[in-house]
Amino acid sequence: MKTGKVPENILKRSVLRQSKTEREEVKNGAGIGRDCAVFSFSDGCVISCVQEGAVAVKADAGCRPGEHTVRYTTAQLIQKCANNLAASGAEPVAVMVALFLPETLEEPRLRALMAEAEEKCRELSVDLAGGQTRVMREISVPIAAVTGFGRMLSGEGAGGAVWGSAAPGEDVVVSKWIGLEGTAFLAENCREKLLERYPGYLVETAAGFHRYASVLPEAAAAVESGVCAMHDASEGGIFAALWELAERSGVGLAIDLKKLPLRQETVEVCECCGVNPYQLLSGGCLVMTARDGAKLAEALNARQIPAAVVGKVTAGRDRLLFNGEDVRCMNRPARDELYRFLDGEEISGEEK
Questions:
Q1: Residue 157 above 60 pLDDT?
Q2: Residue 70: which of 339, 348, 347 has the closest Cα?
Q3: What domains can be seen in the chain, in order of their start residue?
Q4: What is the DSSP string of 309-345?
Q5: Are 333 and 33 in contact (CB under 8 A)?
Q6: Nearest 5 degrees, angle CA 165-CA 244-CA 144?
Q7: Are 243 and 172 in contact (CB under 8 A)?
Q8: Which entry of 195, 237, 265, 322 is 20 to 30 Å from 37 by CA?
Q9: pLDDT tens digits, residue range 264-280?
Q10: In this structure, what DSSP letter does residue 6 have?
């Protein structure tokens, strides 16, 4: 198998079929589009999720052609966990960090990895509650697995955000812009190539898109505004996020491609690198459904969070993309374009 998420058909066949939930305390288990598990007890609910990846200190993180991998910081993985929890209607409370280290790693690097994790936890008001550290001769780069824990938020839409589903007739709303995370990685690691074509300010702006990584503000605002379902966009881009939300809910979609919010910097970086922005890492973008999408978008915009209504939830299973008079079916999530770029593959064909 290739680097990145396990393809959906293999995931269903070889992972999800073996993931059974029988205890009554487990209210939300493994499934397509389900990033968090929900455990219900007499005194409340605990929400949990896991994020993993190869890690490096901030100065060495990113992606480089020929390495065939993306190296996150521990802070970025903690932010991804927090985003998953927030998109499930929960407030992040604590994380546990497990680090698997190669024999070549020196103690100062380990200390730096943990310092960045501690700084992010302090920023998010989240406790670093423990974890595990182990040196292994079987690996060549540090690997981290971050487990996040949260508590249910109160609000009109809180229960629906976790256990409910998107329903036909609801509007689809997207926050901020798509492709932010992947744009930042590409701008940081292809700087010289981009500077041959674009002015420095554009490249620097694109490289700074990591500042939009958190979806906690929009998730909290959406819960207060009666959101029906949420899913944070990440690997596979906005197309994957939309598909996973629809698959989780057993519904169809009608999405206007031209309404999907896209920064000009992303357009330029993707054009130069031969990457499809609609299937590019999109951390920092939250997909929501609401009975009144315009009202939800207005509530987010009032808090200085860009948001737009991009389509409708429909009955049936058809997931359609509208681009002017052109209509096409959305495919199952493809391998993220960032990994295609690292492997030197051609841009995927669904939507260039």
A1: no
A2: 339
A3: 19-152 (3.30.1330.10), 158-342 (3.90.650.10)
A4: EEEEEESSS-EEEEETTEEEEPPSPPPPHHHHHHTTP
A5: no
A6: 115
A7: no
A8: 237
A9: 999 999 999 999 999 99
A10: P
